[in-house]
Amino acid sequence: RQSPEAKILRMLLKREHILLISQAIIDQVLRVILRVRNKDFVGLTFHMIWSDFLVEYVDLADKKLPQKFRNKVPRKDEAIFLTALAGKADYLMTNDVEFARRASAIQSGFSCVDPKEFLAKKSSK
Q: CA 63 to CA 37: how far, in whole Å?
């Protein structure tokens, strides 16, 4: 049986979608991988992302979360929200229900979905 996340990774490998990434997201992925694996796995993961996926880098260096969005998304998720916002994402995918609810309520530029919802939307097209 295939998890929704595994199916989405296969879609990314087939280059069916563009993955938006920023330095803040890179840093977050790095912290998570180092917590559960090792630096060699970090290198392998980022090699795969940059070489096998369609990636668009969103430079957040001079961007700050607009005042109208401050304190409306969880602080820990601000960089993810800003990456989606600045990158003009179609979807922000998260399993964090509260983050998705709050992010959906304050903007209309992208849909906030969990992996199952994303796959359902893609299969209905």
A: 32
- Any idea which residue has 């840093």 for tokens? 27
Whether pTM > 0.90 for this model: the answer is no
Contacts of 122 (CB under 8 A, 6+ apart): 11
Q: How many Cα atoms occupy the beta-carbon half-sphere of 71 within 13 Å?
A: 1
Q: Name the phi and psi angles at 114, rounded to 5.
A: -90, 170
C-alpha closest to that of 112 among 28, 121, 8, 15 = 121
CA-to-CA distance for 45 and 60, rounded, in angstroms? 22
| pLDDT of 1 higher than 80 | no
Contacts of 50 (CB under 8 A, 6+ apart): none
Beta bridge partners of 93: 113
CA pair distance 77, 96, nearest whole angstrom: 10
